Amino acid sequence: MPVRGLRGATIAEENTKESILAATTELLRELMAANGVDKEAVACAIFSTTRDRNAEFPAVAARQMGWDEVALLCGHEMDVPDAMAGVVRVMLLLNTEKSASQIEHVYLRETRNLRQRGVGDGAKAEA
After folding, report:
1. What is the pLDDT of residues 56-94, one digit of tens each?
2. Active site residues
3. DSSP string spanning the chain?
4. Domains, the chain, ordered by start
């Protein structure tokens, strides 16, 4: 079975545990629903936040959702001048029969602008 990357981003409105966990939980639920997969298909999840969001590890939200057997990792994004603030990002590696073109990446709130700019495809790095 192929492994595919699934990306998503959202905004944590405040640098609090509650805000980071709520934003991350919403993002993970949306990603899974949009792609019709469950946690058993997730090989690993790599989370990042902008440096202004450090009150909690986003991976805690995944653990609270029962992702006990999924390998999780957290880090910070590069500190690029003029980059969007308050962002929580995730990249999931999924075991799936879906083709890469069938994967639906999810960008919530203001992060929709990140995907539209083609970030990750050689444009200014904000995604």
Report:
1. 999 999 999 999 999 999 999 998 898 899 999 999 999
2. 7, 63, 74, 77, 89, 107, 115
3. --EEEEEEEEE-SSSSHHHHHHHHHHHHHHHHHHHT--GGGEEEEEEEE-TT--SS-THHHHHHTT-TTSEEEEEE----TTPPSSEEEEEEEEE-SS-GGG---EE-GGGHHHHHTTTTTTSSS--
4. 3-116 (3.30.1330.40)
